[in-house]
Amino acid sequence: MDGSSNWNSSPREFGGTPSADELLRILIVEDELLIALDAEMALEDAGHEVVGTATTEGKAIELALVHQPDLMIVDLRLKDGGCGRAAVEEVRSQLDIAVIFASGNLDPATKTRLEELEPIALLSKPYGSDELVRIVDEAA
Amino acid sequence: MDDKLASGDVPSPHEAISADEADTLDDPYKEIARLRRDLAAARALLAQNEDAPHTLGPAASVDRTALLEAMLETVPVGVVLADATGRIVHGNSWVERNLKHSVLRSEDTDSYGEWVAFHADGRQVESHEYPLSRVIKDGEDHAELDVHYQRGDGTRFWMRVIGEPVRNPEGQTIGATVALVDIEDEVRLLEEKEILLGEVNHRVKNSLQLVSSILSLQARSAPDEAAALLHAASARVQAISSVHAALYHDEDVRTVEFGEYLRRFCERLANGHGADERNISLNVEAEELTLPADKAVPLSLIINELVTNAFKYAFVEGVAQTENFDSDPRVDVRLISNSDGTAVVEVSDNGRGAGTKTPLDESTESGLPRNEAANGLGTKLTSILARQLDAKITKTQANGWIVKLEFEP
Questions:
Q1: Under CATH, which number does the domain B255-409 receive?
Q2: CA-to-CA distance for B57 and B67, rounded, in angstroms?
Q3: Chains A & B: contacts with CB separation below 8 Å
Q4: CA end-to-end span of chain B, whole Å?
Protein backbone atom coordinates (compact mmCIF):
# COMPACT_ATOMS: atom_id res chain seq x y z
CA MET A 1 0.00 0.00 0.00
CA ASP A 2 1.05 3.57 -0.39
CA GLY A 3 1.73 3.92 3.31
CA SER A 4 4.79 6.07 2.77
CA SER A 5 2.91 8.98 1.23
CA ASN A 6 0.30 8.91 3.98
CA TRP A 7 3.11 8.88 6.46
CA ASN A 8 4.44 12.15 5.17
CA SER A 9 1.26 13.99 4.40
CA SER A 10 -0.58 13.18 7.59
CA PRO A 11 1.41 12.99 10.80
CA ARG A 12 -1.83 12.32 12.67
CA GLU A 13 -1.87 8.84 11.23
CA PHE A 14 1.36 7.95 12.89
CA GLY A 15 1.21 4.38 14.16
CA GLY A 16 -2.26 3.96 12.76
CA THR A 17 -5.36 5.92 13.64
CA PRO A 18 -7.03 4.57 16.77
CA SER A 19 -10.79 4.20 16.73
CA ALA A 20 -12.80 7.28 17.64
CA ASP A 21 -13.56 6.55 21.26
CA GLU A 22 -10.27 4.96 22.12
CA LEU A 23 -8.64 6.16 25.31
CA LEU A 24 -4.91 6.44 25.28
CA ARG A 25 -2.10 5.23 27.49
CA ILE A 26 0.18 8.23 27.85
CA LEU A 27 3.71 8.90 29.10
CA ILE A 28 4.48 12.45 30.25
CA VAL A 29 8.07 13.64 29.89
CA GLU A 30 8.46 16.94 31.76
CA ASP A 31 10.94 18.10 34.37
CA GLU A 32 8.60 20.59 36.06
CA LEU A 33 6.53 18.25 38.17
CA LEU A 34 3.67 20.70 38.79
CA ILE A 35 3.20 21.14 35.05
CA ALA A 36 3.31 17.34 34.70
CA LEU A 37 0.79 16.91 37.52
CA ASP A 38 -1.65 19.38 35.95
CA ALA A 39 -1.35 17.61 32.59
CA GLU A 40 -1.75 14.22 34.25
CA MET A 41 -4.90 15.21 36.17
CA ALA A 42 -6.45 16.86 33.13
CA LEU A 43 -5.75 13.82 30.94
CA GLU A 44 -7.08 11.40 33.55
CA ASP A 45 -10.20 13.54 34.01
CA ALA A 46 -10.70 13.09 30.27
CA GLY A 47 -10.47 9.33 30.75
CA HIS A 48 -6.95 8.67 29.50
CA GLU A 49 -4.40 6.66 31.44
CA VAL A 50 -1.08 8.27 32.37
CA VAL A 51 1.40 5.42 32.68
CA GLY A 52 4.16 7.53 34.17
CA THR A 53 6.04 10.80 34.39
CA ALA A 54 9.72 11.04 33.47
CA THR A 55 11.91 14.04 34.27
CA THR A 56 15.13 12.89 32.59
CA GLU A 57 16.09 11.64 29.14
CA GLY A 58 17.16 8.24 30.50
CA LYS A 59 13.99 7.74 32.51
CA ALA A 60 11.87 8.78 29.52
CA ILE A 61 13.45 6.07 27.36
CA GLU A 62 13.20 3.48 30.14
CA LEU A 63 9.52 4.17 30.91
CA ALA A 64 8.59 4.28 27.24
CA LEU A 65 10.17 0.88 26.59
CA VAL A 66 8.68 -0.68 29.73
CA HIS A 67 5.12 0.67 29.40
CA GLN A 68 4.94 0.98 25.62
CA PRO A 69 2.40 3.83 25.75
CA ASP A 70 0.28 4.98 22.78
CA LEU A 71 1.50 8.54 23.12
CA MET A 72 4.35 10.50 24.67
CA ILE A 73 3.98 14.17 25.63
CA VAL A 74 7.52 15.48 25.62
CA ASP A 75 9.10 18.70 26.88
CA LEU A 76 12.27 19.56 24.96
CA ARG A 77 14.46 20.54 27.89
CA LEU A 78 14.77 17.94 30.59
CA LYS A 79 16.49 17.61 33.93
CA ASP A 80 20.29 17.27 33.99
CA GLY A 81 20.63 18.81 30.53
CA GLY A 82 18.61 16.03 28.94
CA CYS A 83 16.99 16.44 25.54
CA GLY A 84 13.41 15.37 24.87
CA ARG A 85 14.02 15.08 21.15
CA ALA A 86 16.94 12.69 21.68
CA ALA A 87 14.79 10.56 24.00
CA VAL A 88 12.08 10.32 21.35
CA GLU A 89 14.61 9.39 18.66
CA GLU A 90 15.97 6.59 20.84
CA VAL A 91 12.50 5.27 21.67
CA ARG A 92 11.43 5.49 18.02
CA SER A 93 14.38 3.32 16.97
CA GLN A 94 12.63 0.48 18.82
CA LEU A 95 8.93 1.35 19.02
CA ASP A 96 6.35 3.28 17.04
CA ILE A 97 4.96 5.70 19.60
CA ALA A 98 3.10 8.88 18.69
CA VAL A 99 4.47 12.08 20.19
CA ILE A 100 3.40 15.60 21.11
CA PHE A 101 6.24 18.03 21.74
CA ALA A 102 5.84 20.92 24.18
CA SER A 103 8.38 23.69 24.47
CA GLY A 104 8.83 27.30 25.43
CA ASN A 105 11.18 27.79 22.52
CA LEU A 106 9.60 26.81 19.23
CA ASP A 107 11.62 29.01 16.89
CA PRO A 108 11.46 28.14 13.18
CA ALA A 109 14.72 26.14 13.24
CA THR A 110 13.61 24.06 16.23
CA LYS A 111 10.21 23.53 14.63
CA THR A 112 11.74 22.21 11.44
CA ARG A 113 13.92 19.75 13.35
CA LEU A 114 10.97 18.53 15.42
CA GLU A 115 8.71 18.14 12.42
CA GLU A 116 11.15 15.58 11.03
CA LEU A 117 9.89 13.31 13.81
CA GLU A 118 6.29 13.77 12.62
CA PRO A 119 4.69 14.70 15.92
CA ILE A 120 0.91 14.82 16.30
CA ALA A 121 1.33 18.41 17.46
CA LEU A 122 3.84 20.99 18.61
CA LEU A 123 2.53 22.70 21.73
CA SER A 124 3.97 26.09 22.47
CA LYS A 125 4.50 26.67 26.18
CA PRO A 126 2.69 28.00 28.05
CA TYR A 127 -0.33 25.91 27.06
CA GLY A 128 -3.53 25.29 28.98
CA SER A 129 -4.22 21.76 30.15
CA ASP A 130 -7.61 21.99 28.39
CA GLU A 131 -5.78 22.65 25.14
CA LEU A 132 -3.59 19.60 25.73
CA VAL A 133 -6.62 17.41 26.39
CA ARG A 134 -8.32 18.66 23.24
CA ILE A 135 -5.33 17.79 21.07
CA VAL A 136 -4.98 14.37 22.68
CA ASP A 137 -8.69 13.69 22.21
CA GLU A 138 -8.44 14.66 18.55
CA ALA A 139 -5.57 12.22 18.14
CA ALA A 140 -7.37 9.38 19.90
CA MET B 1 62.58 67.69 8.02
CA ASP B 2 60.95 67.18 11.39
CA ASP B 3 60.29 70.89 11.59
CA LYS B 4 58.63 70.88 8.26
CA LEU B 5 56.50 67.85 9.10
CA ALA B 6 55.31 69.32 12.35
CA SER B 7 54.35 72.63 10.86
CA GLY B 8 51.78 73.93 8.40
CA ASP B 9 48.93 71.80 7.12
CA VAL B 10 50.81 68.53 7.18
CA PRO B 11 49.75 66.62 10.26
CA SER B 12 52.50 64.85 12.10
CA PRO B 13 51.99 61.12 12.50
CA HIS B 14 52.98 61.52 16.15
CA GLU B 15 50.01 63.71 16.79
CA ALA B 16 47.70 61.08 15.44
CA ILE B 17 47.62 59.20 18.71
CA SER B 18 46.63 61.42 21.58
CA ALA B 19 46.99 60.21 25.14
CA ASP B 20 43.30 59.49 25.72
CA GLU B 21 42.97 57.64 22.46
CA ALA B 22 45.84 55.40 23.41
CA ASP B 23 43.79 54.33 26.44
CA THR B 24 40.90 53.18 24.32
CA LEU B 25 42.71 51.11 21.77
CA ASP B 26 40.36 48.22 22.32
CA ASP B 27 37.45 50.14 20.84
CA PRO B 28 37.55 49.20 17.15
CA TYR B 29 35.55 52.24 16.05
CA LYS B 30 37.96 54.66 17.69
CA GLU B 31 40.77 52.69 16.17
CA ILE B 32 39.22 53.05 12.77
CA ALA B 33 38.70 56.80 13.24
CA ARG B 34 42.30 57.13 14.26
CA LEU B 35 43.41 55.03 11.35
CA ARG B 36 41.53 57.31 8.99
CA ARG B 37 43.34 60.32 10.34
CA ASP B 38 46.63 58.48 10.03
CA LEU B 39 45.85 57.62 6.45
CA ALA B 40 44.92 61.23 5.75
CA ALA B 41 48.30 62.22 7.14
CA ALA B 42 49.96 59.58 5.00
CA ARG B 43 48.16 60.82 1.91
CA ALA B 44 49.27 64.35 2.65
CA LEU B 45 52.83 63.11 3.01
CA LEU B 46 52.63 61.24 -0.27
CA ALA B 47 51.13 64.22 -2.02
CA GLN B 48 53.94 66.40 -0.75
CA ASN B 49 56.47 63.85 -2.04
CA GLU B 50 54.97 64.10 -5.48
CA ASP B 51 54.65 67.85 -5.44
CA ALA B 52 58.18 68.66 -4.44
CA PRO B 53 60.49 65.76 -5.14
CA HIS B 54 63.13 68.00 -6.67
CA THR B 55 63.34 70.34 -3.73
CA LEU B 56 63.54 67.60 -1.14
CA GLY B 57 65.56 65.13 -3.16
CA PRO B 58 65.25 61.34 -3.42
CA ALA B 59 66.69 60.78 0.05
CA ALA B 60 63.86 62.71 1.68
CA SER B 61 61.35 60.72 -0.34
CA VAL B 62 62.83 57.46 0.95
CA ASP B 63 62.71 58.88 4.47
CA ARG B 64 59.05 59.72 4.12
CA THR B 65 58.19 56.28 2.83
CA ALA B 66 60.03 54.76 5.77
CA LEU B 67 58.18 57.08 8.11
CA LEU B 68 54.87 56.16 6.55
CA GLU B 69 55.56 52.47 6.90
CA ALA B 70 56.66 52.93 10.51
CA MET B 71 53.45 54.77 11.17
CA LEU B 72 51.37 51.96 9.68
CA GLU B 73 53.04 49.62 12.14
CA THR B 74 51.74 51.57 15.11
CA VAL B 75 48.07 51.09 14.29
CA PRO B 76 46.36 48.15 15.97
CA VAL B 77 44.54 47.02 12.84
CA GLY B 78 45.62 45.47 9.57
CA VAL B 79 46.27 47.91 6.72
CA VAL B 80 46.57 46.86 3.10
CA LEU B 81 47.22 49.27 0.25
CA ALA B 82 46.39 48.73 -3.41
CA ASP B 83 47.17 50.81 -6.48
CA ALA B 84 44.56 52.07 -8.95
CA THR B 85 44.47 48.73 -10.81
CA GLY B 86 43.84 46.85 -7.59
CA ARG B 87 47.33 45.39 -7.33
CA ILE B 88 48.21 44.98 -3.67
CA VAL B 89 51.37 46.92 -2.97
CA HIS B 90 51.69 46.94 0.78
CA GLY B 91 50.44 45.43 4.02
CA ASN B 92 51.53 46.16 7.55
CA SER B 93 52.90 43.51 9.91
CA TRP B 94 49.48 43.13 11.60
CA VAL B 95 48.43 41.24 8.49
CA GLU B 96 51.15 38.66 8.79
CA ARG B 97 50.84 38.40 12.56
CA ASN B 98 47.07 37.90 12.59
CA LEU B 99 46.38 36.20 9.28
CA LYS B 100 49.37 33.90 9.74
CA HIS B 101 50.49 34.21 6.15
CA SER B 102 52.51 36.85 4.32
CA VAL B 103 50.78 39.73 2.55
CA LEU B 104 49.43 38.27 -0.68
CA ARG B 105 50.45 40.53 -3.55
CA SER B 106 47.27 39.97 -5.52
CA GLU B 107 47.72 41.08 -9.14
CA ASP B 108 44.33 42.73 -9.55
CA THR B 109 40.80 42.86 -8.16
CA ASP B 110 40.00 39.50 -9.76
CA SER B 111 42.64 37.75 -7.67
CA TYR B 112 41.36 38.76 -4.22
CA GLY B 113 39.78 35.33 -3.85
CA GLU B 114 43.23 34.06 -2.86
CA TRP B 115 42.50 35.71 0.51
CA VAL B 116 40.31 32.88 1.77
CA ALA B 117 37.29 33.97 3.80
CA PHE B 118 33.69 32.91 4.30
CA HIS B 119 30.31 34.49 4.83
CA ALA B 120 28.20 33.62 7.88
CA ASP B 121 26.31 31.06 5.76
CA GLY B 122 29.56 29.25 4.91
CA ARG B 123 29.79 30.49 1.31
CA GLN B 124 33.29 31.54 0.29
CA VAL B 125 33.80 35.26 -0.28
CA GLU B 126 34.40 35.93 -3.97
CA SER B 127 36.94 38.41 -5.35
CA HIS B 128 34.35 40.99 -6.40
CA GLU B 129 32.70 40.97 -2.97
CA TYR B 130 35.77 42.28 -1.15
CA PRO B 131 35.58 45.96 -0.16
CA LEU B 132 38.84 46.66 -1.98
CA SER B 133 37.31 45.47 -5.24
CA ARG B 134 34.10 47.39 -4.57
CA VAL B 135 35.90 50.70 -4.07
CA ILE B 136 38.32 50.22 -6.98
CA LYS B 137 36.13 48.51 -9.57
CA ASP B 138 32.63 49.67 -8.59
CA GLY B 139 33.68 53.14 -7.48
CA GLU B 140 32.11 52.93 -4.00
CA ASP B 141 33.26 55.58 -1.51
CA HIS B 142 33.17 53.22 1.41
CA ALA B 143 32.68 49.48 1.62
CA GLU B 144 32.51 47.13 4.57
CA LEU B 145 32.25 43.39 4.93
CA ASP B 146 32.39 41.07 7.92
CA VAL B 147 34.03 37.80 7.01
CA HIS B 148 35.05 34.58 8.71
CA TYR B 149 38.67 34.66 7.63
CA GLN B 150 40.70 31.49 7.18
CA ARG B 151 44.21 32.05 8.49
CA GLY B 152 47.32 30.50 7.00
CA ASP B 153 47.21 27.77 9.67
CA GLY B 154 43.62 26.86 8.75
CA THR B 155 41.97 28.40 11.83
CA ARG B 156 39.23 30.99 11.30
CA PHE B 157 38.25 34.26 12.99
CA TRP B 158 35.75 37.03 12.40
CA MET B 159 37.22 40.08 10.75
CA ARG B 160 35.70 43.34 9.52
CA VAL B 161 37.14 44.56 6.22
CA ILE B 162 36.74 48.28 5.55
CA GLY B 163 37.77 49.74 2.23
CA GLU B 164 38.11 53.34 1.04
CA PRO B 165 39.55 54.86 -2.10
CA VAL B 166 42.66 57.08 -2.08
CA ARG B 167 42.18 60.07 -4.38
CA ASN B 168 44.61 62.68 -5.64
CA PRO B 169 43.77 66.40 -5.35
CA GLU B 170 42.07 66.19 -8.76
CA GLY B 171 39.70 63.57 -7.42
CA GLN B 172 41.07 60.66 -9.42
CA THR B 173 41.29 57.34 -7.64
CA ILE B 174 44.98 56.52 -7.37
CA GLY B 175 44.58 53.53 -5.11
CA ALA B 176 42.68 52.21 -2.16
CA THR B 177 43.23 51.18 1.42
CA VAL B 178 41.60 48.55 3.54
CA ALA B 179 41.57 48.29 7.29
CA LEU B 180 41.24 44.83 8.79
CA VAL B 181 39.73 44.71 12.27
CA ASP B 182 39.53 41.69 14.55
CA ILE B 183 35.84 41.53 15.58
CA GLU B 184 35.99 38.08 17.14
CA ASP B 185 35.05 39.49 20.58
CA GLU B 186 32.20 41.51 19.16
CA VAL B 187 30.72 38.51 17.36
CA ARG B 188 31.15 36.26 20.39
CA LEU B 189 29.40 38.78 22.67
CA LEU B 190 26.54 39.00 20.22
CA GLU B 191 26.21 35.22 20.18
CA GLU B 192 26.29 35.11 23.97
CA LYS B 193 23.59 37.76 24.10
CA GLU B 194 21.36 35.67 21.84
CA ILE B 195 21.90 32.59 23.97
CA LEU B 196 21.11 34.51 27.17
CA LEU B 197 18.01 36.04 25.60
CA GLY B 198 16.84 32.58 24.58
CA GLU B 199 17.49 31.32 28.09
CA VAL B 200 15.51 34.16 29.70
CA ASN B 201 12.71 33.68 27.20
CA HIS B 202 12.56 29.99 27.98
CA ARG B 203 12.54 30.69 31.73
CA VAL B 204 9.74 33.23 31.42
CA LYS B 205 7.58 30.86 29.41
CA ASN B 206 8.22 27.99 31.78
CA SER B 207 7.32 30.20 34.74
CA LEU B 208 4.11 31.34 33.07
CA GLN B 209 3.32 27.70 32.36
CA LEU B 210 3.85 26.96 36.07
CA VAL B 211 1.48 29.77 37.08
CA SER B 212 -1.12 28.49 34.65
CA SER B 213 -0.68 24.90 35.90
CA ILE B 214 -1.02 25.91 39.55
CA LEU B 215 -4.24 27.85 38.84
CA SER B 216 -5.56 24.91 36.87
CA LEU B 217 -4.64 22.42 39.63
CA GLN B 218 -6.35 24.62 42.19
CA ALA B 219 -9.44 24.96 40.02
CA ARG B 220 -9.68 21.18 39.83
CA SER B 221 -9.92 20.84 43.60
CA ALA B 222 -12.17 23.89 44.17
CA PRO B 223 -15.98 24.02 44.43
CA ASP B 224 -17.79 24.98 41.19
CA GLU B 225 -18.09 28.70 41.71
CA ALA B 226 -14.49 29.12 42.85
CA ALA B 227 -13.34 26.88 40.02
CA ALA B 228 -15.00 29.18 37.49
CA LEU B 229 -13.14 32.15 38.95
CA LEU B 230 -9.83 30.28 38.90
CA HIS B 231 -10.42 29.28 35.29
CA ALA B 232 -11.10 32.92 34.41
CA ALA B 233 -7.84 33.90 36.14
CA SER B 234 -6.02 31.13 34.30
CA ALA B 235 -7.43 32.36 30.98
CA ARG B 236 -6.14 35.88 31.70
CA VAL B 237 -2.70 34.53 32.44
CA GLN B 238 -2.91 32.62 29.16
CA ALA B 239 -3.80 35.82 27.32
CA ILE B 240 -0.63 37.43 28.62
CA SER B 241 1.56 34.43 27.98
CA SER B 242 0.38 33.87 24.44
CA VAL B 243 1.43 37.42 23.58
CA HIS B 244 4.77 36.64 25.16
CA ALA B 245 5.10 33.56 22.98
CA ALA B 246 4.21 35.60 19.89
CA LEU B 247 6.94 38.15 20.68
CA TYR B 248 9.53 35.51 19.93
CA HIS B 249 7.94 34.37 16.70
CA ASP B 250 10.00 36.60 14.45
CA GLU B 251 13.35 38.35 14.54
CA ASP B 252 12.21 41.37 16.54
CA VAL B 253 11.41 40.40 20.13
CA ARG B 254 9.85 43.80 20.88
CA THR B 255 6.92 43.56 18.49
CA VAL B 256 4.11 41.19 17.52
CA GLU B 257 2.42 40.81 14.14
CA PHE B 258 -1.01 41.13 15.73
CA GLY B 259 -3.13 39.99 12.77
CA GLU B 260 -1.66 36.51 12.67
CA TYR B 261 -1.57 36.38 16.45
CA LEU B 262 -5.24 37.38 16.70
CA ARG B 263 -6.31 34.48 14.47
CA ARG B 264 -4.49 31.90 16.57
CA PHE B 265 -5.50 33.46 19.88
CA CYS B 266 -9.22 33.65 19.03
CA GLU B 267 -9.19 30.12 17.68
CA ARG B 268 -7.74 28.95 20.95
CA LEU B 269 -10.43 30.83 22.89
CA ALA B 270 -13.18 29.39 20.68
CA ASN B 271 -11.86 25.86 21.18
CA GLY B 272 -11.71 26.47 24.92
CA HIS B 273 -15.38 27.41 24.90
CA GLY B 274 -16.41 24.39 22.86
CA ALA B 275 -17.40 26.44 19.81
CA ASP B 276 -17.53 23.35 17.57
CA GLU B 277 -19.75 21.27 19.86
CA ARG B 278 -22.08 24.21 20.32
CA ASN B 279 -22.14 24.97 16.59
CA ILE B 280 -20.93 28.51 17.06
CA SER B 281 -18.70 29.67 14.25
CA LEU B 282 -15.77 32.00 14.80
CA ASN B 283 -14.74 34.34 12.00
CA VAL B 284 -11.56 36.33 12.31
CA GLU B 285 -10.75 38.92 9.67
CA ALA B 286 -7.44 40.50 10.51
CA GLU B 287 -5.21 42.80 8.55
CA GLU B 288 -1.50 42.84 9.17
CA LEU B 289 -0.58 45.12 12.07
CA THR B 290 2.68 45.23 13.96
CA LEU B 291 2.25 46.20 17.60
CA PRO B 292 4.80 46.80 20.33
CA ALA B 293 4.57 44.53 23.37
CA ASP B 294 3.12 47.26 25.61
CA LYS B 295 0.10 47.61 23.30
CA ALA B 296 -0.23 43.95 22.40
CA VAL B 297 -0.58 42.73 26.01
CA PRO B 298 -3.50 44.99 27.07
CA LEU B 299 -5.20 44.52 23.70
CA SER B 300 -4.91 40.76 24.04
CA LEU B 301 -6.45 40.95 27.53
CA ILE B 302 -9.35 43.08 26.26
CA ILE B 303 -10.01 40.69 23.39
CA ASN B 304 -9.90 37.82 25.87
CA GLU B 305 -12.70 39.49 27.87
CA LEU B 306 -14.85 40.37 24.84
CA VAL B 307 -14.55 37.07 23.00
CA THR B 308 -14.91 35.01 26.19
CA ASN B 309 -18.09 36.85 27.08
CA ALA B 310 -19.48 36.43 23.60
CA PHE B 311 -19.03 32.68 23.85
CA LYS B 312 -20.21 32.52 27.47
CA TYR B 313 -23.26 34.75 27.45
CA ALA B 314 -24.45 35.49 23.91
CA PHE B 315 -25.81 32.07 23.11
CA VAL B 316 -27.20 30.93 26.40
CA GLU B 317 -29.64 28.07 26.06
CA GLY B 318 -33.22 28.83 26.96
CA VAL B 319 -33.17 32.30 25.48
CA ALA B 320 -35.59 32.14 22.58
CA GLN B 321 -34.30 33.20 19.18
CA THR B 322 -36.80 35.37 17.31
CA GLU B 323 -38.12 34.39 13.89
CA ASN B 324 -36.17 36.86 11.78
CA PHE B 325 -32.96 36.24 13.66
CA ASP B 326 -29.74 35.07 12.00
CA SER B 327 -29.98 31.38 12.53
CA ASP B 328 -26.33 30.40 12.67
CA PRO B 329 -24.65 31.54 15.85
CA ARG B 330 -21.40 33.30 15.13
CA VAL B 331 -18.74 35.42 16.75
CA ASP B 332 -16.85 37.86 14.53
CA VAL B 333 -13.54 39.48 15.26
CA ARG B 334 -12.12 42.10 12.93
CA LEU B 335 -8.84 43.97 12.96
CA ILE B 336 -8.64 46.91 10.58
CA SER B 337 -5.64 49.10 10.02
CA ASN B 338 -6.95 52.50 8.87
CA SER B 339 -5.14 54.69 6.37
CA ASP B 340 -5.00 57.52 8.93
CA GLY B 341 -2.79 55.34 11.12
CA THR B 342 -5.42 54.31 13.63
CA ALA B 343 -6.49 50.74 14.14
CA VAL B 344 -9.87 49.25 14.92
CA VAL B 345 -10.70 46.02 16.67
CA GLU B 346 -14.30 44.92 16.50
CA VAL B 347 -15.83 42.00 18.34
CA SER B 348 -19.44 41.09 17.63
CA ASP B 349 -21.87 38.24 18.09
CA ASN B 350 -25.37 37.54 16.82
CA GLY B 351 -26.68 36.03 20.02
CA ARG B 352 -29.63 37.12 22.11
CA GLY B 353 -27.74 37.20 25.37
CA ALA B 354 -25.66 40.02 26.72
CA GLY B 355 -22.64 38.50 25.00
CA THR B 356 -19.89 40.75 23.81
CA LYS B 357 -21.43 43.72 25.53
CA THR B 358 -21.21 42.18 29.00
CA PRO B 359 -17.80 43.47 30.01
CA LEU B 360 -18.94 47.01 29.25
CA ASP B 361 -22.16 47.12 31.12
CA GLU B 362 -23.12 45.45 34.34
CA SER B 363 -26.87 45.99 33.99
CA THR B 364 -27.95 43.74 31.16
CA GLU B 365 -31.44 44.07 29.82
CA SER B 366 -31.88 40.40 29.29
CA GLY B 367 -31.38 39.54 32.93
CA LEU B 368 -29.34 36.51 32.07
CA PRO B 369 -27.83 34.38 34.76
CA ARG B 370 -24.24 35.41 35.13
CA ASN B 371 -21.47 35.45 37.59
CA GLU B 372 -21.46 38.89 39.23
CA ALA B 373 -17.95 38.71 40.66
CA ALA B 374 -16.32 37.50 37.46
CA ASN B 375 -18.18 40.00 35.29
CA GLY B 376 -17.47 42.90 37.56
CA LEU B 377 -13.77 42.33 37.13
CA GLY B 378 -14.13 41.80 33.38
CA THR B 379 -15.84 45.18 33.06
CA LYS B 380 -13.21 46.90 35.12
CA LEU B 381 -10.32 45.24 33.27
CA THR B 382 -11.73 46.17 29.88
CA SER B 383 -12.27 49.83 30.70
CA ILE B 384 -8.93 50.24 32.50
CA LEU B 385 -6.99 48.54 29.72
CA ALA B 386 -8.81 50.57 27.06
CA ARG B 387 -7.70 53.67 28.95
CA GLN B 388 -4.13 52.35 29.03
CA LEU B 389 -4.30 52.01 25.24
CA ASP B 390 -5.89 55.48 24.87
CA ALA B 391 -8.57 53.62 23.00
CA LYS B 392 -12.05 54.86 22.18
CA ILE B 393 -14.53 52.13 22.94
CA THR B 394 -18.10 52.02 21.61
CA LYS B 395 -20.89 49.47 21.69
CA THR B 396 -23.85 49.19 19.40
CA GLN B 397 -26.64 46.66 19.10
CA ALA B 398 -27.41 45.09 15.75
CA ASN B 399 -28.23 41.41 15.68
CA GLY B 400 -26.23 40.92 18.79
CA TRP B 401 -23.76 43.35 20.24
CA ILE B 402 -20.84 44.99 18.45
CA VAL B 403 -17.99 46.39 20.50
CA LYS B 404 -15.57 48.59 18.67
CA LEU B 405 -12.17 49.62 19.95
CA GLU B 406 -10.30 52.40 18.17
CA PHE B 407 -6.71 53.15 19.04
CA GLU B 408 -3.36 54.31 17.76
CA PRO B 409 -1.02 51.41 17.29
A1: 3.30.565.10
A2: 16
A3: 71
A4: 66
Of A26-30, B27-31, B258-262, B286-290, where does mean pLDDT reach its minimum?
B27-31
CATH superfamily, with its number, for domain B78-182: PAS domain (3.30.450.20)
Mutate to test the interface with A, among B199, B203, B204, B206 (most CBs of A within 10 A): B206
DSSP-assigned letters across all residues of B115-141: S-EE-TTSPBPPGGGSHHHHHHTS--S
Average pLDDT over residues B279-292: 92
For residues B182 and B162, the answer to whether their CB atoms sit within 8 Å is: no
The mean per-residue pLDDT over the stretch B344-365 comes to 66
Strand segments, DSSP code E, in B210-366 are 255-257, 281-286, 290-292, 330-337, 343-349
Task: Tell me how close the Cα of B308 comes to any Cα of chain A, in angstroms.
Answer: 15
ipTM: 0.75
- Residues B165, B167, B171: CA angle, nearest 5 degrees: 125
Q: For B133-190, how does the pLDDT look when each residue is reduced to its tens digit (9 = 90+)? A: 999 999 999 999 999 999 999 999 999 999 999 988 888 889 999 999 999 999 999 9
Q: What is the mean pLDDT of residues B75-83?
A: 93
Cα–Cα distance for residue pair B362/B407, rounded to 1 Å: 24
**A46 touches B at CB < 8 Å:** no
- To the nearest whole angstrom, how far is the Cα of A38 from the nearest Cα of chain B? 6
Which residue among B198, B216, B241 sits closest to A38, beta carbon to beta carbon?
Answer: B216
pLDDT tens digits for range B361-388: 444 433 333 444 445 788 888 889 999 9
